[in-house]
Amino acid sequence: MRIAMMTNNYKPVVGGVPIAIERLAQGLRERGHVVYIFAPQYEGYAHEEEYVIRYRAFRKKAGGYVPLMKPFDLEMERLFQALDFDLIHVHHPVMIGQRAQYLGRKYGVPVVFTYHTQYEQYLHYWKPYRWLKEKGGRLENKIVKFVEQQLVLGVIRQFTDRCSLVLTPTRKVQEILQERGWQADTAVLATGLPDSFYSEYWERQTNERLSREFIRRTYGKGKRHLLCTVARLSAEKNLKFLLRSLAVLKDRAGDDFQFLVIGDGPQKAELEFYVQQLGISDNVTFLGTVPNEEVPAFHCASDLFLFASQSETQGIVLLEAMAGGSPVVAVQATGVLDVVFSGENGYVTSESEEEFAKCAEQALSDPELYQRLSEGAAETSGRFRNRTIAWRAECAYEQVVLEHRGVKKERLFLHI
Q1: Residue 119 pLDDT more than 50?
Q2: Strand, coil or helix: 282
Q3: More confident position, 204 or 307
Q4: 71-80 long-range CB contacts below 8 Å, 24 or more apart?
């Protein structure tokens, strides 16, 4: 098949959606398909990549991350027509989403959409919405509800109704869409993990700087346990909760752990000050951004992966940590419940610092339990290898294309 992936953000932006697109495209190419990625131009980024087509965008960036695409890009349409695609897989419902559906209608190509993000949970980045929430009056609350239900969810629902298939990264997100009464056909397609994320890969690599021993010696500060998280340092990742839980863990189990925070973001300075207030400065290290290809080495070197975000639709980082054999302790959330199972590969907790710290302490203090959790984490992640996910996508695409051409069959991929 000839597949057009379309997105509002891609490299050099680091994030879940660009990673998911890159991995899926690679997996599909390995299965013999032709995949082009239509992504925005970025100011100051001129790196050319095979099979990536950059469409025109305004220099101004929305939210600091997403360039606003220009409404009419004739060159993009010319290339789309010339490349004769069988299917469009779009990854955002607005801007590029409207363009994808326009091209699909004009050239008779079915459109598949992945519902990566619960957009209503990111409205706090919009200043007028934040002001209305803080004001909290009767009128303000009505406006907030209108924005959430009509301007956000209403627009996305209309978009999904016009897609041939809506993919969700987890079964829980699929259930949410169905509970809302949305009519679109849905199927689950997680983000795959390349072989380079699995512990056996890192056992063979020869770079001393990325070995388990070097990382623990360099960043562990002589502590017995090394804990880790990977996240953008922003409010929706709930990192203050994690830090409070670590303060409780320190009170419960002592000082013999070091926590690595991998990532950067607008909350960094605030979090560094918060660590001092909590009295855990000696137990927390902010590493900043680590190259994507090196992050798995930190997972393999860590004893536990801690996660508190409640806005993720999947939480790719959970599976990445598990692939390195690291059990997960995470707050109950949509992206957590499909992959973390208490007592099997980690623990799912309520948003209680005491409960979170207790679960972390339990995993670290019992060697037999820890070994079982680590083996369970590795087993879970093994079901998400990129080659498996690409095969699932291929099955979905093929049936969508056949249906678009008038061949009606049972959608077997829904049950894979």
Answers
A1: yes
A2: helix
A3: 307
A4: 76/38, 77/103, 79/53, 80/4, 80/38, 80/107
